[in-house]
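User: Is it possible to get a 3D structure for a protein together with its bound compound? The compound here is pyridoxal-5'-phosphate. I've pasted both below.
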Amino acid sequence: MNVTRDLFNEVMVPNYNPAAMIPVKGLGSRVWDQEGKEYIDFAGGIAVNALGHCHPELVAALTEQGNKLWHLSNVLTNEPALRLAKKLTDATFAERVYFANSGAEANEAALKLARRYALDVYGEHKQQIIAFKQGFHGRTFFTVTVGGQAAYSDGFGPKPGGIDHVDYNDLAALEALMSDNTCAVMMEPLQGEGGIISPSDEFAKGVKALCEKYHALLIYDEVQSGVGRTGELYAYMGLGIEPDILTTAKALGGGFPIGAMLTTARIAEHLKVGTHGSTYGGNPLACAVAERVLDVVNTPEVLNGVKHKEQIFRQGLEIINQKYACFTEVRGQGLLLGCALNEKYAGRSRDFLVAAADEQLMCLIAGANVIRFAPSLIIPDEDIKEGLARFERAVAKVVNA
Ligand SMILES: *Cc1c(COP(=O)(O)O)cnc(C)c1O
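Assistant: Yes, that's possible. Here is the predicted structure of the complex:
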């Protein structure tokens, strides 16, 4: 069969618009397309391939488990799921884990748990969920409605109710909305899709204090910021603030689909037998791979490496900006970085992405005004330098066009 990009339009639902080239192989931070053309990967499958492509330890974990046991359903438990849950609880504030298959599913579980907890403990009035504009929590109808971009949730009929949005980093606006009716506040401790926005220290602490004051659960969506991305295992650790519920996915499986919701024993209790579930969640294959990801990432070597590589990126991007004057700032944390375009290039992030692809560099955008990088946490320094050289050529093309 002749597999081309044209076939996409013939057989796929048109909700995506993928690039013209089709990758067929990856190794570390390099990817090759059907023609054998090589790319450097600064996108990391959207912050998923935390250990690059085909990391030997992950390939080993997958094949070992693949030769043993793939799937059981949740009528039975399994060793990889229990080991992974133990390691996640040992490494974090959490005492209980629920496994899902994606970020949206982990968030769906978090939101349902928060609603059930509030109902059980406080009563029906406590329903309000507050989240932030430009926030992103997934594409199920509940999570996309909690997300802060109405454009993504409009056009599908009546939405789940009881959800309000305020500006990120606007503590006064949050305070004005909160009351004893607030069930939960959901936030990304570093907004990813919304443009790589960090919370101010005051805001992060203030949100936590308001949640305590009104007995609302604080849900941290760490689907993008988690598993070493910021140079901490989870971003909450860097902020010094413990959420009540944390969701993790993307990098957790290093490319194998898995998501998880983490919480305390006291809250978890309310998701009683039969209240929620998933056929695949906690599947042995996914958990075996994720266990190995966690073993590799949660080491001083890898986590300190992220901070070191962040500096290489920042220095390289600053030099490019000194020459071409196109960014207002380079922001973000660890290996989740954003170049915010200045007025002259407003709305043109996609042009930079396309120019980068022409230079054999894969990167991402975060809205129309931010170029985003989310590479492997162990990307070799040489690949960063070569990738930045390609990025500079791409920037020159856009600027000089
Ligand atoms: C990607 C993302 C999600 C959705 O995860 P899926 O696996 O696509 O369902 C949720 N929250 C955040 C912060 C994300 O970046």
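Residues 102-104, 107, 136-138, 188, 192-193, 221, 223-224, 249-250 surround pyridoxal-5'-phosphate (CB under 6 Å). DSSP finds 15 helices and 15 strands in the chain.
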